[in-house]
Design a protein that fits this description.
Largest sheet of chain B: 2 strands, antiparallel
Strand order of the largest sheet of chain B: 1-4
Number of helices of chain B: 2
Structural class of chain B: alpha+beta
Structural class of chain A: alpha+beta
Distance between the termini of chain A: 38 Å
Strand content of chain B: 15-25%
Strand order of the largest sheet of chain A: 3-4-10-7-5
CATH class of chain B: Alpha Beta
Shape of chain B: globular
Helix content of chain A: 40-55%
Number of helices of chain A: 16
CATH superfamily of chain A: Cytochrome P450
CATH architecture of chain A: Orthogonal Bundle
Largest sheet of chain A: 5 strands, mixed
Largest interface: A-B, 24 and 22 residues
Radius of gyration of chain B: 11 Å
Bound molecules: iron/sulfur cluster
Order of helices and strands of chain B: EHEEHE
CATH topology of chain A: Cytochrome p450
Number of domains of chain A: 1
Number of domains of chain B: 1
Oligomer: heterodimer
CATH architecture of chain B: 2-Layer Sandwich
Shape of chain A: globular
CATH class of chain A: Mainly Alpha
Strand content of chain A: 5-15%
Distance between the termini of chain B: 14 Å
Chain lengths: ~400, ~70
């Protein structure tokens, strides 16, 4: 766990909506640089990829850039050491053919049409949160009452956690995922969370419903182990909580800071889809996908990457690359959608992208409808940002209406 | 313009279908792309080029006239 006083790793540094200056200076040196992400704090030098084209090349080439973690210290990249229990089902750490097997069974559960079935339920969740915000009165903290309050219940809806269990489930989940706690406490909480997941999986095996877990056991019951099904649920929580809360909070702030642009899109669903794409690009809340390990020597961006080297791709810099789009540092909600890499690229492209897009669209739309006069309750420069997290976001966002 | 999709590469994002529903569909069975129109109407060429460029798996390729656009 990084101590509060340790510097924030270089690739996660931001200034308001932008990559921090020291990070930009790196990108200016070239699309691929050798750097330590935690200078002076024992961070080993690795390759940071900042060019859009180069990032797509790395993420699109799973045979030469492995995501499989080295579970043993002497194991080579993409090795076959035994995966520890807590890593089972975490698809981003799998290479083909293991990855192909799981992903193939999961993909049909995440189609655009399947996700649309969740739309009314997500609309309800969002409406409930807005009711709560209205009741709390202004000024209200949009980070707490909106951005952080929506993703958890939506994931429960997706996975099929019964309503009455949700608060407990989410509390245990947060404890399980929290990195700021003592190891012992985390293990205890973690086991409470995995015990609940085990019971949920067992129930679905017996009486599958039409939720995501029910469909998986119905269609492929025998092809998944219980451990894998639990792991996949954990994966969804890992991917769906901080990334979405980050997008909801930062996105709301970006909209409030750009009222003229907001006016152009707020009542037009097609324009709003485009605006969501631009917010995904411009805000790039995930700092980096799973680090890759080069499987062989590769030349990229004019640099020689050696077999075994670690490669980290910067999402915010790739999405602000001038080769990707003109004036990349300007938020333009009407921008023609560009091939941004906010959901990654290649075989590990976010499996929940369709859900995320829908959730963001529903939430932004409902927020703006409910509070047409929404505005910041503090000066923009006083907004507190969430820095020590895998996804950028706001820590507190006081608003009034 | 002629559209080709490589279902082996497709990551199942459904992006192409959302973008140009007249040309792409997403299979209910495996979540992967289905081609509805291999020779789309000229009017959709720009949108098809956009979908091909944005495909997160590089699974859409175009050939023939107006494959590259302006
Ligand atoms: S955009 Fe590409 S990856 Fe997504 S469904 Fe279409 S072909 Fe497949």
């Amino acid at each position: 766990m990084p101590h509060e006083s340790t510097p924030v790793p270089l690739h996660t540094r931001r200034t308001h909506f932008d990559p921090a200056d020291d990070l930009r200076r790196l990108a200016a040196d070239g699309p691929v640089t050798r750097v330590s992400l935690a200078p002076g704090a024992g961070g080993e030098p690795l390759w940071l990829v900042t060019g859009h084209e180069e990032v797509r090349r790395v993420l699109g080439d799973h045979t030469r850039f492995s995501t499989r973690r080295r579970f043993g210290s002497r194991e080579p990249a993409g090795g076959d050491g035994e995966r520890p229990d807590e890593g089972v089902g975490l698809l981003m750490d799998y290479d083909p053919p293991e990855h192909t097997r799981l992903r193939k069974m999961l993909t049909p559960e995440f189609t655009v049409r399947r996700m649309r079935r969740l739309q009314p339920r997500i609309e309800n969740i969002v409406a409930e949160r807005l009711d709560a915000m209205e009741r709390a009165g202004h000024p209200a903290d949009l980070a707490e009452l909106f951005a952080s309050a929506i993703p958890g219940p939506v994931l429960c809806e997706l996975i099929g956690v019964p309503r009455d269990d949700r608060d407990d489930f989410l509390r245990r989940c947060h404890a399980h995922l929290a990195t700021g706690r003592g190891r012992q406490e985390r293990t205890a909480a973690g086991s409470a969370f995995t015990r609940y997941l085990a019971a949920l999986v067992a129930r679905q095996r017996k009486n599958p419903d039409d939720g995501f877990l029910g469909m998986l056991v119905r269609d492929h019951g025998g092809d998944f182990t219980d451990k894998e099904l639990r792991g996949i649920c954990i994966l969804l929580m890992l991917a769906g909580l901080d990334n979405i809360s980050g997008m909801l909070g930062l996105g709301a702030l970006a909209l409030l800071e750009n009222p003229d642009q907001l006016a152009l899109v707020r009542d037009d669903p097609a324009a709003l889809d485009r605006a969501v794409e631009e917010l995904l690009r411009y805000l790039s809340v995930p700092h980096a996908p799973t680090p890759r390990t080069a499987v062989e020597d590769i030349t990229l961006g004019g640099r020689l990457i050696r077999a075994g080297d670690t490669v980290v791709c910067s999402i915010p810099l790739a999405n602000r690359d001038p080769h990707l789009t003109a004036e990349p540092d300007r938020l333009d909600l009407t921008r023609e959608p560009v091939p941004h890499v906010a959901f990654g690229h290649g075989i590990h492209h976010c499996i929940g992208a369709a859900l995320a897009r829908m959730e963001l669209r529903i939430a932004y739309t409902a927020l703006l409808r409910r509070f047409p006069g929404l505005r910041l309750a503090v000066p923009a420069q006083d907004v507190a940002f969430r820095v020590r997290s895998t996804a950028y976001g706001v820590e507190r966002l006081p608003v009034t209406w | 313009m002629e559209v080709h999709v490589d279902r082996g590469r497709c990551a199942g994002s459904g992006l192409c279908m959302s973008y140009v529903p007249a040309v792409f569909d997403q299979s209910e069975d495996d979540g992967k792309v289905l081609l509805k129109a291999a020779r789309p109407e000229p009017g959709t060429a720009a949108a098809v080029r956009g979908a091909a460029a944005r495909c997160p798996a590089g699974a859409i390729t175009l050939s023939g006239g107006d494959a590259h656009g302006r």
